[in-house]
Amino acid sequence: xxxxxxxxxxESRSHFRQLLAIGAIASVLGVTLGLLIxxxxxxxxxxxxxxxxxxxxxxxxxxxxxxxxxxxxxxCVWRYRMKPGEELKDGPPIHGNTRLEIVWTAxxxxxxxxxxSYSYVALTDIEEAKADSLEVRVVGEQFTWTFHYKGPxxxxxxxxxxxxxxxxxxxxxxxxxxxxxxxxxxxxxMKIDAVPGIDTHLRITPKTNGEYPVVCxxxxxxxHAVMRQTAHVVDRAEFDRWLQERAAGAEGGGGGExxxxxxxxxxxxxxxxxxxxxxxxxxxxxGTTGGTGPDLDEGLKGKDQAFIRESIVDPSAxxxxxxxxxxxxxxxxxxxxxxxxxxxxxxxxxxxx
Amino acid sequence: xxxxxxxxxxxxxxxxxxxxxxxxxxxxxxxxxxxxFSNPFDGSDGWDSHWQNAVLIVALLGAPLFFFVxxxxxxxxxxxxxxxxxxxxxxxxxxxxxxxxxxxxNTDHKVIGIQYVVTSFFFMLVxxxxxxxxxxxxxxxxxxxxxxxxxxxxFSVHASLMIFLFIIPVFAGLANYVLPLMIGxxxxxxxxxxxLSYWMLPVGGAMMTASFxxxxxxxxxxxxxxxxxSTSVPIGQLFFTIGVQFAGASSIATALNFLVTIITMRAPGxxxxxxxxxxxxxxxxxxxxxxxTPFIAASQFFVLLDYALGFNFFVPERAGDVLMYQHVFWFxxxxxxxxxxxxxxxxxxxxxxxxxxxxxxxxxxxxxxLLAIVLLGFTVWAHHMFVSGMQxxxxxxxxxxxxxxxxxxxxxxxxxxATLWRGVLHLDTPMLFALGFLTMFTLGGxxxxxxxxxxxxxxxxxxxxxxxxxxxVLYGGSLFTIFAGVYYWxxxxxxxxxxxxxxxxxxxxxxxxxxxxxxxxxxxxxxGMPRRVADYPEQFATWNLxxxxxxxxxxxxxxxxxxxxxxxxxxxxxAEANPWRGMTLEWQVSSPxxxxxxxxxxxxxxGPYEYGVPGAxxxxxxxxxxxxxxxxxxxxxxxxE
Lengths: 353, 641
What we know:
The structure holds 2 protein chains of 2 kinds.
Chain A: H1 2-36, H2 46-80, H3 98-126, E1 134-141, E2 144-150, E3 156-159, E4 162-165, E5 170-176, E6 181-185, E7 190-194, E8 200-204, E9 210-216, E10 228-234, H4 236-252, H5 268-274, E11 282-283, E12 288-289, H6 296-299, H7 305-313, H8 332-335, H9 338-351
Parallel strand pairs in A: 1-5, 4-10
Antiparallel strand pairs in A: 1-2, 2-3, 5-8, 6-7, 6-9, 9-10, 11-12
Helix pairs in contact in A: 1-2, 2-3, 5-9, 7-9
Chain B: H1 2-6, H2 10-34, H3 49-71, H4 75-81, H5 109-138, H6 148-182, H7 191-210, H8 237-264, H9 277-309, H10 322-339, H11 342-356, H12 363-377, H13 395-404, H14 406-420, H15 429-452, H16 454-460, H17 464-494, H18 500-527, H19 541-571, E1 603-604, E2 619-620, H20 624-629, H21 631-640
Antiparallel strand pairs in B: 1-2
Helix pairs in contact in B: 2-3, 5-6, 5-7, 5-19, 6-7, 6-8, 6-17, 7-8, 8-9, 9-10, 9-11, 9-12, 11-14, 11-15, 11-17, 12-14, 14-15, 15-17, 15-18, 17-18, 18-19
């Protein structure tokens, strides 16, 4: 009996060593794979670098845990599955092992406290308030975002597009007019709810020029899925020029102001695309296929410019059968500049004749 | 006919429901007239919509009570209250002799257990069908089958049914059947309350499902029903708001019943440290339910009052506080995550120990870790609100407690692994699901720890990463334990054996298609796809098509399970009393057990998992003194039972 027990323990030890070796190799492979996968979208903010590093650390810390469990399960299935003739056999009556139990309580606890501390440091890093921040007020409503800037002379400048200058810290103050929304630019890695009644804040420092989706991440009703706009990260000079033009356009209201940078009157097709109309509406000329709102090629056929203008500015005035009222944002009359609206109406009338 | 209408049952219930709706209409009309609102019948075309909605709300609240009375759930208590003769020893409503007995108020915990399990699997199939429709819509970008409103309704009803009508009650059902047997009790402590808590369930489920027929469509604000969205949508929302009250009341009553049963009705010798871990798990869960569930009731009453009576709980212009909803809601709904997991932990401990032929490793730590999870479970609710705009300092302690809750969970995982070590593993269907649970739940737990880490969670909250995480813990976690438990106790509950080959096919198909469905969701979530969207940009199209195809296989794999269960229940081979050679008490009686469970009161003389210990017994069927005198006879007695 005694010698049998010794061989059993020795066998158990050799099994354990075997298991450790398999587990170690699998962990290395798993971690390598986890680090090789391209998980995230473009890093468009400085915060994104920190976040992505935290992710890598988490991969390194957690893959071995999963691999450990997986290996033990598969190993036990392979080694200890019931063989023919063992139908009535029982395993050894091991009730526990205090030392082992202390180990697997303490090690995860230490690991987790370590990860929490690291996350805390990373969090303070990405949320740090920086001097000379550009202030942008983000207002969410069903189902659109409007971005408010302080223009020349402290005047409020509103835009349906988000423009931020590369390299300059931005502080967003997020508000909501109706229900809860969530302001998220995946490329910036940061998000915050827009909550009716309170101001919430978010800070990022744009890093890479480009166009990135602005997404509403909190279910806000029927049009939640199409509450998407575009964030433009541009050079500082270009940003300043854009803000100037935007401010001038809002003030003058005339068609003569420059909006794009070169041309005279704004291009209706460009307005259509920039305002995100194609997200919901199908329009052959612009090549959009959205199905949330009515098909414009059909719906606007033979309609005059007055009808088109009214449908944009006051979507509830005439709701197409089969579609719900209240999905299309009612504020395009405010966020589009008069010249842009004119151009859009003219464009739509022409291409849907 | 009159006799049928007078006797408790479906005819009387139907008549009472009609009466309840008429009562609601009358009450609303009188009150509205008294307050000087328009007469509903003045309207030129059809009924006034305010009147109609008001009637609907009052009927949703009141008609179920009429239904319970009609069905006979209160008969005994009414007789007693009226001083009329009651029959305390009348067991006519005990036991089931034909399938019809499952459709009436029955006080037998074994009948109620089966009623619970079958009802919740019915709603699981309904919820699964809704999920299939969700995936059909998401298979390609753009709008194919349903519009935005219907889509939001699909995933909202899917989640609500799966949580409130499937996972929570199916565990209550399994425990209802098994737990009294395990502790050597003849029934639950309050059999009539037990019957009432069951019948509240289908009412809540029918309400949520019926919301699709409400004017304006079903509730479409997710199962979280955040205000003020939920106070500003069509009347379908109230089908959730009120349906949850019934599911919640059912849950609380059952939990109270479990607590009292466990504390007062254990067999002689069944000390707390000799209780099987399933009993420990349900003890812990019941504590959670009793403490936490009133909070979701409150959160939904706030919504009801704001919606129906113009209160200002969530109107910021009138000093309402929008975030308050989330705090109250998650103070229930985070513990609810453990309500949906702890009973599963109990099932896994039973299955692993029996199927590995070894004592559970570290029994006491297994019990303590359950209690630790109960305690810690109340300290982490705000991790659902990391990006909600609440005060930012509170995020740090919530991050730490959230991470720390992985420690007791880890103790359980590692102890289960140690239980497998050097065992004799019977790899049949319940065991496969238990092992599947071990691996998949670990993955869900790991993504849970990642979600605790603030820099990551700010990016991935409200994305498909969350959808992936929740399905790894609730499908790969809870549902796998449910499958393991249903297969494991199927012989006991039905007296028939299931088809193990079909069971293993079910496992492998489910396991693989589950991973193919929910695994890629981690990736698209991190890449920037928000959840709860009917439409998405082109860049996610390939993965979504892949996920949808895999999910259809997952849906089909469930049908194998249903087929196996139905066929085996009808024509499966007769099950012996103890097909798994288990030691716990439920296996020491016939399959299915006698009407009052034990013909003789059992005495517990040892631990529940003494596999491999020569001559060890858990319970015997004669007084302990006799057993002490004649140990050999006692052991022989037990094995013959």
